[in-house]
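Bench notes, afternoon.
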Amino acid sequence: MSQTLFALLDFGLVFGAVLGFGFWQLWVLRRDRRRRAERGENKSGEA
């Protein structure tokens, strides 16, 4: 029982970390895109 509980906890921890990192990357991408649009720069970036 404790092994199953530990496996589920471990899986949940890894899944939560991956999901959290993915959402954080999406948020940063959207934030940067919004800032770039406010400054009037083109979408290609600094190039």
